[in-house]
Write a structure and sequence with these properties.
It comes from Paraburkholderia tropica. The protein is an alpha/beta fold. 45% of the residues lie in helices and 17% in strands.
Length: 436
């Protein structure tokens, strides 16, 4: 055997001519002036199974585009080709698995696009402009395709997260309108984004968004199917059927207070102004209760909040007898009186909050986002966005940097076991150490 491998060994590297023609890349090469980082992938052992040492006869190089704010770099993945001088067996490290098969973006670039769009509210056309200033214009159609693939790949995590929050006995729910493009019409119509979160008193910090084509209550029933707990929500009628099916309603004191506050602020209603100190007292008690454990919170509510609630209830009944039906103040009084049992259930359940403000805070990112991207391109695009935002916002609730979280799970997903997907959820996620 000579010092160099025979022609037969080289031929192992060459696919048939028709196959070579099909596999030739059609994308434009990445600009040569971009900085490059070489990442070498070599076999674990260069000793052939016949006992001889293999020699390196060449390499394959694939390039992936990476991005740090304002700076593009290129990762050069170099896979050495090793052949045995004796038996001419060729080995090469496998192509690393990637969330976008044969795609050019690194998971770092994908995470940047997702976080910029769904956490920093930068539409893709603005990101296209930002990337162009950094030296490489990536068409928004390409960015949109990347977002779509990531949404599909991340959906199993969101499904697992939904199952986890449905194990909780107290949930919040709220919804907000989002304009969605109607297929083939060039116009938008009103779709809805629903948010479901665990309670602020729960150890599990998570939110799941559900994007639907309408505000029909059937969407809430479908999401909560099989769940029988306590739901903190406003008085939207779409939830009423769920209450008839065994879910317990928890009223929102903030909505009740808002009825009186708006009358007082906009119409100088003195009666409405007299209601506000009751709510102020209840919220001062809740600020103290938030720092206590569950048992102490219950005792505080019983000793301090219940007398205030009793006094407010008596005042509501008295005032309702003095005002005519159909007036603004009558409507405000009726709102609280008709929902009094739901509004005061928090007094007897230490795991229940006084209002629904927690979930309204989780809807705020969507309210800010829609002011920037204006509308969802389709129902599927809205659902993909809801999935990605669920993970980003849940990561933030658990104190994680969403870019670091998404980059890591997008790297792990292609080789992660499907039956252990819950390990990648934000409240369980542990970043890999540098030496792993």
């Amino acid at each position: 055997m000579g010092d160099w491998p025979s022609r037969a060994a080289y031929e192992q590297l060459k696919p048939p001519s028709a196959e070579r023609h099909r596999e030739q890349p059609k994308r434009t090469p990445l600009p040569p002036q971009l900085p490059r980082t070489d990442i070498h992938h070599e076999p674990d052992s260069t000793v052939c199974r016949c006992g001889c040492g293999r020699v390196r006869i060449g390499e394959d190089i694939s390039e992936k585009l990476d991005y740090a704010p304002g700076v593009f770099t290129v990762e050069r993945h170099i896979r050495g080709k090793w052949v045995c001088r004796n038996c001419e067996t060729l080995v090469q490290a496998p192509v690393p698995a990637h969330v976008i098969d044969k795609g050019i973006p690194t998971t770092g670039l994908l995470a940047s696009v997702l976080v910029s769009k769904y956490a920093d509210h930068l539409p893709l056309y603005r990101q296209e402009q930002i990337f162009s200033r950094a030296g490489l214009a990536i068409p928004r159609s390409t960015l949109g395709a990347w977002v779509g693939v990531c949404g599909v790949q991340l959906q199993p995590l969101v499904d697992a997260l939904r199952q986890e929050i449905l194990q909780q006995r107290v949930l919040h729910a709220d919804e907000t309108p989002v304009q969605m493009l109607s297929p083939g019409k060039g116009k938008t119509h009103r779709a809805y984004l629903w948010a479901y979160t665990t309670s602020q008193f729960s150890k599990l910090r998570a939110v799941v968004y559900d994007f639907t084509g309408s505000r029909a209550g059937a969407h809430a029933r479908a999401f909560l199917d099989g769940w029988h707990g306590k739901l903190v929500c406003d008085d939207y009628g779409g939830y009423k059927a769920s209450f008839r099916q065994g879910i317990i309603e928890i009223g929102c004191a903030a909505h009740a207070r808002r009825k009186f506050f708006e009358l007082h602020a906009n119409h100088s209603s003195q009666v409405a102004g007299h209601a506000l100190p009751f709510f102020t007292a209840l919220y001062e008690i809740e600020r103290d209760a938030a720092e206590l454990d569950a048992d102490e919170r219950y005792r505080l509510r019983q000793s301090r909040a219940r007398p205030v609630c009793d006094a407010l209830h008596e005042w509501l009944i008295t005032q309702r007898k003095l005002v005519s039906g159909g007036s603004g103040i009558a409507n405000a009084l009726d709102y609280s009186l008709k929902r009094w049992e739901a509004l005061t259930r928090y007094l007897d359940d230490r795991s229940v909050p006084i209002d629904n403000n927690w979930v309204e805070n989780q809807i705020r990112p969507w309210a800010i986002g829609r002011a920037n991207w204006l509308f969802a391109g389709s129902l599927r695009a809205g659902q993909r966005g809801a999935a990605i935002t669920s993970l980003i916002r849940s990561a933030q609730l658990n104190g994680h940097d969403p870019h670091a979280y998404l980059k890591d799970i997008l790297t792990r997903l292609p080789t992660h076991r499907a039956n252990d997907i819950a390990a990648l959820l934000p409240h369980r996620w542990q970043p890999k150490q540098a030496n792993e």
